[in-house]
Specification:
This protein has 6 helices and 6 strands, in the order αααααββββαββ. The chain has 244 residues and is an alpha+beta fold. The protein has 2 domains: 73 residues, no CATH class; 115 residues, no CATH class. A 4-stranded antiparallel beta sheet has the order 2-1-3-6. A two-stranded antiparallel ribbon has the order 4-5. The protein is rod-shaped, with a radius of gyration of 49 Å.
């Protein structure tokens, strides 16, 4: 073993490194050879001497390195710290999910439902206007209203249109000097003598309230979606018979 090897070995001992990083000891069995080879025993004593001297020298330099190694050991995450960080991540995810992800998910669902109603009501009024244009006039438009309530499209809040909670307005017009005026007739209803020139159908008093229950927001008022069409003989044939 050279001088530098001895110092390195003893320095590792002084630094407190694990045995795996130290130079493995080499046992010397000099019992049968001491008589013939006395220098073997002297070499072993010299090795001990070197370790005692080099250990003191290396120990002086081990203070700074030991402080650094202890600092590294302190900064390494311990099992308790890892469990704390894991719990903190779970809490942060729960707050983010409950305050952002979940409301946005329901907002997308409710907006999709509102757009579904929006397009359905638009087609609903057009269908009612076509029915009114091809059927006879009645002062209260009960024939058109009954048809629309019985043929409400499949959509959210369909029951409001069937039960009358959402109003249906039917207005007939007459062409007077090039302008449309509200139509009126003194003759019998649903007859060939009372045929208006145009009709309009709209929806009233309907509000989308699904936002107000979950997000505590005011209801959304749906536009009337007024559909107007010219009368098409009001459902009357040449003999004067009209379809109600």
């Amino acid at each position: 073993m050279t001088m530098w090897g001895r110092m390195a070995s003893c320095g590792r001992v002084a630094l407190g490194l694990p045995p795996s990083m130290q130079m493995p000891p080499r046992p010397i069995d000099n019992r049968p050879q001491v008589a013939n080879l006395p220098h073997i025993g002297q070499r072993a004593r010299l090795n001990q001497c070197w370790c005692s001297v080099a250990g003191k020298v290396c120990g002086r330099f081990s203070v700074g390195l030991g402080a650094r190694s202890s600092t590294r050991r302190r900064t390494a995450p311990q099992p308790a710290e890892r469990s704390t960080r894991r719990g903190q991540a779970v809490v942060e995810f729960a707050i983010l999910y409950g305050a952002v992800v979940l409301p946005l998910t329901f907002m997308l669902i409710f907006v999709s439902e509102m757009l579904w109603i929006w397009h359905s009501v638009c087609d609903y009024t057009r269908d009612g206007a076509r029915y009114a244009a091809t059927h006879c006039w009645m002062a209260d438009a009960s024939n058109v209203t009954s048809y629309m309530q019985a043929n409400a499209p499949a959509m959210i809040d369909q029951n409001q249109f069937q039960d009358g909670d959402a109003g249906i307005a039917v207005v007939y017009f007459a062409n007077v000097s090039g302008s449309l005026q509200p139509f009126s007739c003194q003759s019998a209803e649903c007859g060939a003598g009372c045929i208006p020139d145009a009709v309009s159908v709209s929806i009233t008093n309907y509000q989308f309230r699904r936002f107000s229950g979950f997000f505590k927001l005011p209801p959304v008022t749906i536009p009337p979606f007024t559909a107007s069409l010219p009368m098409e003989s009001a459902g009357c044939d040449e003999s004067g018979n009209c379809l109600p």
